[in-house]
């Protein structure tokens, strides 16, 4: 299988390095052949080529079976007046590959409950997956700027809503058959369309799946007040961005959460939900688990290697259970480095 | 002083009734004369007049010193195809009165920490106020709908951003001189403008106030992970809607939180941040504290009656401390009714 590796910026290179080692260990153990190609994206690509997503990178991704990405962005490229920004590279890649469904599973581990701001009794049994629409909405609508004002257009078509709701309902079939669709239908026209389409798709195509609707403001509350109530959550791009960072607090750290971005084609993009964390970049202390678990999702969704994916997930669980935790999770003074956590995961995979 | 009372829908009449009794008790105790006028808004107004904000209501509010509102909306008026919706009345009122700054203070009470999903040690000392922009952004931009798609325009002018940031910085001067501005400047053009304008206003006009920027997704995390870090938070309309519902979980219940919506004129609008809660409407169990505390903000911000405002706030604190709690806060089987909580607050005010 051909895998493109996009290290990106900040802690991106450190965490992708860890995940690549894990992929290599899985290949050895199961006798697979993974061919890894590195390409440039984000700030690193701007520095080298002037563009956040060089054509060579996009083409390599289009030809690949899957893409593993670290993170993009950083203060070096964050001047509000800058013409090109690292994030444009990531957005153009998601759009260019047609990856409209971003899956973000949230399953707190017993070993990391201490790091969560949420009371532990609310967290046991939490097992949700957020399906975030990833190639539409206000992220991609027309942007305008004048001397005295600015605007962003939020747009959704029926087809865009249908396909992502369908993906969420399909996922729910393999789980607890329950989908909560999140919108702001009491204010937004796009949300009213979202609600209508979601209702119709669920009723006509998924009679075995229960669909509920929640307003996004309420959801921001319920997500932490009664997290066990959720199975699959489906929502538009901006709401999904906000709610998944919030949901990461259920797991104890943003650094733990993986994601899979899928479209109609075979190629998927796998990245941790955290950012490039410039404040800790280069110090060898970043949590590699989000990226390692993203590699597991890559094996599952793009390569169909379920046993291998589970093997990685169990290895990460075992390492967390053993208390080998990076600084985002460990009690003060007891933190393991990125390398130590990675080595512990690799040891589980021998 | 002339106060317009807008009961609205669902639990709106129940909670405004409680707050009106409290205002009457304050008037008696301090020898003030409050003239209260009731008017229609929301679903109740649609049923009576066909419009969610009848002209008579808007005019009465424009002439008044202050407006006290319950909540609007409910399933009866929520057909996605409906031409008029209760929420339009609220939005038109905010816009019609020019109330661009929505102040939402969050100060957890010791007595309600048990009801919060957040670990108690994170909550002691939390004292923040969110300033939400209330008359711009995606709430008020052009909406379009066709057979196959829908759109909402998010727009901000420099002047709209300046005035709300100024209000936030002024508030910070009476507090800990610290403002966090929340945006999504790595993706949205309106957010980049927001960040530039906020930076300039703070630097040029408030050199004594420290301004920081946070991305909205990060903020959804930090708000619950380290709530003590925040003093004043300023953000655009939609982000403020989501983040304040989330922040209500710090206080233990949405039902506790008041808000004040202010503009350049003297008239302010005071409403709890909760909605019309149709599921519990008419059962006499709603938490009246958010609306009672909104009446306190009314006295402070529109009538300049600080001692009276504090007197109400202390009365509510004392009632919470005494364990007189509605069902949203009480341990199972120990809940007080709306009337019991209100009576307890009134007893404190004798
Ligand atoms: C870096 C940024 C553009 C991105 C997003 O907002 O989608 C990130 O926050 C994420 O969630 O993947
Ligand atoms: C009812 C609704 C329109 C309103 C809003 O979104 O502003 C409410 O959620 C609020 O926060 O006051």
TrEMBL record, chains A, B:
Protein's UniProt keywords contain NAD: yes
Pathway in which the depicted protein is active: Amino-acid biosynthesis; L-leucine biosynthesis; L-leucine from 3-methyl-2-oxobutanoate: step 3/4
Reaction(s) catalysed (UniProt annotation): (2R,3S)-3-isopropylmalate + NAD(+) = 4-methyl-2-oxopentanoate + CO2 + NADH
Alphabetical list of Pfam families matching this protein: Iso_dh
Main enzyme class: oxidoreductase
Alphabetized InterPro entries for the sequence: IsoCit/isopropylmalate_DH_CS (IPR019818), IsoPropMal-DH-like_dom (IPR024084), Isopropylmalate_DH (IPR004429)
Subcellular location: Cytoplasm
EC number: 1.1.1.85
Chief localization: cytoplasm
Residue ranges annotated for the Isopropylmalate dehydrogenase-like domain, each copy included: 2-345
Subunit structure of this chain's protein: Homodimer.
Function: Catalyzes the oxidation of 3-carboxy-2-hydroxy-4-methylpentanoate (3-isopropylmalate) to 3-carboxy-4-methyl-2-oxopentanoate. The product decarboxylates to 4-methyl-2 oxopentanoate.
Protein name, per record: 3-isopropylmalate dehydrogenase
Source organism: Lysobacter gummosus
Lineage, highest ranks first: Bacteria, Pseudomonadati, Pseudomonadota, Gammaproteobacteria, Lysobacterales
Gene, per the UniProt record: leuB
